[in-house]
Amino acid sequence: MTMNVSMTVNGKAVAAEVEPRTLLVQYLREHLGLTGTHVGCDTSQCGACVVHVDGASVKACTMLAAQAEGATVVTIEGLANGDALHPMQEAFRDNHGLQCGFCTPGMVMSAVDIATRHPNPSEQTVREQLEGNICRCTGYHNIVKAVQAGAKAMGG
Amino acid sequence: MTDTGIGARVLRKEDRRFLTGGGRYVDDINRPNQTHAVLVRSPHAHATINGINAKAAESAPGVIAVFAGADTAADGLGGLPCGWLINSKDGSPMAEPAHPVLAQGKVRHVGDPVAVVIAETRGQARDAAELVEVDYTELPSVVDTATAANPDQPQVHDEAANNTCYDWEFGDKAGADAGLANAHHVTKLDLVNQRLVPNAIEPRAAIGDYDSGEDRYTLYTTTQNPHVIRLLMCTAVLNLPETKVRVVAPDVGGGFGSKIYHYAEEALVTWASRKVGRPVKWTADRTEAFLSDAQGRDHVTHVELGLDKDGKFTALKISTVANLGAYLSTFGSAIPTYFYAPILAGVYTTPAIYCEVLGVFTHSVAVDAYRGAGRPEACYLLERVVDAAARETGLDPAEIRRRNFIPESAQPYQTPIALVYDGGNYQKNMEDCLAAADAAGFEARKAESAARGMLRGFGLCCYIEFCGAAPSAVAGALGARAGLYEAATVRVNPSGSISVMTGTHGHGQSHETTFAQLVSEQLGVDIGAVEIVHGDTDKIAFGMGTYGSRSLPVGGTAIVKSLDKVIDKGKKIAGHILEASADDIEFKDGQFAVSGTDKALAFGEVAGAAYVPHNYPLEELEPGLEETTYFDPPNFTFPAGCYICEVEIDKDTGVTRIDRFTAVDDFGVLVNPNIVEGQVHGGLVQGIGQALYEGCQYDAESGQLITGSYMDYCMPKASDVPSFAISTNETKSPTNPLGVRGCGEAGAIGAPPAVINAVVDALKDHGVTHIDMPATPEKVWRAIHGGATAMAAE
Amino acid sequence: MYNFNYHRATSRDDAKAKQGGAEDGSYLAGGMTLLPTMKQRLASPSDLIDLAGVSDLAGVRRDGDAVVVGAMTTHAAVAASADVAQAIPALADLANHIGDPQVRNRGTIGGSIANADPAADYPAAIVGLGATVLTDSREIAGDDFFTGMFETALNDGELVTEVSFPVPEAACYMKFPNPASRYAIVGVMVARTADGVRVAVTGAGPSVFRSAEMEQALSGNFSPDALDGISVPAGDLNADIHAGSDYRAHLVGVMAKRAVAGCG
0.90 cut: is pTM over it? Predict the structure, then answer.
């Protein structure tokens, strides 16, 4: 009981035979070895699994791989340009916006999405827009600063 | 010199891999030919197991094996040990019931592991786990802390009459009683320090990998202390010599205490990997984490504080019931005793203090250290009762504290309950914080809030805690079954790069950067030349791990002492090459130079020469440049500070919003202020989480966990908390050569009383004198509309 | 998650046929509730029929005095729709506060209302704005659509295709979110329409409901003060660890007043 799924992940065309119940995050981690996308909860709240599907941020733990058929997916591994970090990645580093690093990939992917929709976000906008991402280490203070700085660096 | 030494705000070395998806956490690791384990867990809080039928599961697709308690017993697996012996008032040792890795005839909390299913895929293992038929006879259960020791309650263990693990005391009972009897005023308070779930965002995971060729096991696990896990698992559970076991803790996604302990799953996957002849991987999902990660706090306390007519404290007396859960976790017995009572003097000169703690078993997940571990519970009750005393005596909360502070001139200060504080100006912390928080402007802000129909409150907390566990002699005298020193090896490689092997373990604390800064400072090299190696028992001599803000004061000191030895050895090498006495060599600015001459060797030259001993006097000078230190601290360190919280409460809904939060901490010397600030922010939000949002609840009748997911257990989100105004004072700790105190737990310790004091202040005109945590909108609304009595009845 | 068969429907008819041909088939819209439920093994459909490929189910259009939202329109699309913002800003605001940005990017109006979670936001809009739910076979008045906790008037296999919201004179939705899940502990939609005032409450009871007493009071005097002294009976409301029924009843009053004030 398997099915074929194919999509573009970080610019590469990929395809695999999977069980229909395979979640997008499982497909990324287990089939493609893209372990930067994490799983931190079962109820689509922590946001450690956030990736971009066709340009929109989604929780890869609450989407079947099958639902991404034909889609363009970007994960944390696809954000940097070679050795050059994405401006949002740089901003997280500059502002000490990460500690244990586990929520970080989802946080950064959400942050890029926020910056795209809100080019110069206020602190309150950032806090509200981070509704779908939980961090247990940083107390959010430096993440908020990082998202604002990253948005600015992205050209906002 | 370099600009990456002590005090530099350098960016973290570890960030690049975390930011690019290159972190390597346990669940990211896959071993060749690996299998997957899923645990069958008890759906009942308390039940007898009459039988287990695994036939259907064993024949399900992909299933390789199903093991139950009989299998682990047949192989002679021992139970999970407790690392700290507590004796009761009467001198008798604590009740220490067996803690099997798989249930033996009985289950004692929802989530208690009963069997393990091993299959080709995780999905298959989970499918098959549902086919394991366990015949239970349900028994009545108890989860309530306050009443667990009542004689009519269901018993968790036969060995622990009245569910009592210990009935412990600390301090001067007669003195405290006399101080209360002679007091001008006694303030009494009943409070609950609710149970919390640590909730590191990375769920626990473990991979056991037995190599039959080497006859050796490797365990990859999400732990804060790999050597401790190896020690406990080898000696207590699997009966193996350490030589046969390697424990690897790769990147670990937060711990906050919950990843200190030796868990059943670690031993199970290790053992099972040999049984099935293939690697066995287990990863918890969040639901499972709620049912199996050790939880925190859970105290019910009565406190009495005596005051003389001037508001000076005369005595403090505390009676606590501490819920230990169904089994003793690794440090479960010590947290509500020796990590709690000795800090009850706080920052005050209270002359007589007595504390008794009844440790009780209940049908709930084990309770152990969670960020702060005992000290938040102590700080909360003390700073709450001091605030209550201020209100009852008409003193300003800051003024009552001024009248009782331990003066800086009295440092080092011997408290009446064992500890000797290591310096600090506690009043200055408060005065600085009052100024930074614009306390003077509060009344105007309150009036402005009132004009909008909102209530505003101001809350103060002056915390102190103890870090850097531990002077082993002290810990041993108090029942610790291990020493608490730390080991570090500094290896200077031939090309001059430096490897530092530390027994601590970073899982968010930025050790790779902070420790590299210590090396940079002392050897004058850039942090880029330094590699910090941790988390692998094969690579590191020994270690006790990371918890209790011990890594820098204890582990960092071990590194510094090894660096001292490296420099001494380097002087010998340089002296030999430069044909001078080692005593005449001085190491400065990254060079070994002959005093008073221009003859010098760069550090890198000495490193190279150390490995090319062509003309060494080998009787006097060995090749190589590597030194190891085991550092056992002479005392704890005592970070202290002041937190001020200002809240605004919507009285129509009961919603509390933190408008301002100001912190002044004294952590001694700061190695990297960025990282320290990050630790404070994170601690504060966990403390705010406890004060306003989080609470682990079990159903009183069924013992079922009600808050078993993020749908019901409220984790603070970005929009729930403010940005912080934080600053530091610096009093060097004399306990270690770095002068550091530790900063990991302060926020979680000091924030809860600051927030609750602010909430109570906001509600004081509504007759509210106390509100238990978490101060949810509903509780606040009831307090406003029903007053204090309604709260008590709730 | 248990295994299941996955189908990608290409049209409404194809979806109906595939659902009808399955032993226990379930439509898959955004999956924001269904997939977590299946992950917890609390639901085990034999087949999932993915509606994402049915192109004519998504989109927002203005249709005379109504705004019509396709069943597969995401919350984010509703929140961002110029038609919605212009005609019914309260609906855009409601959609913009469902879950979190990632949920809003996947979750759909059709999926939400077909699931009929008592704490979901959209039921307050369907009932409060007097919407009409269109299915593959009929029209269902918003007032008749929700029949109980997780229960609707939909027949087995009936497919929601659109929701038509009549444009009100003014409307406002006020939500008191569950601090953990951010679902509504209480959400109140107040709308002033040509046919009178509507007050719909979600989150508080087993299913969305209207408060006739509030509607009557507001019909005479559309101001927050008109609701003074009016409460919904606590006995009919939900109680859980987050909010007792009396607290919920109180919040209904507070949120209703704020919604009235928000109507401007």
Answer: yes
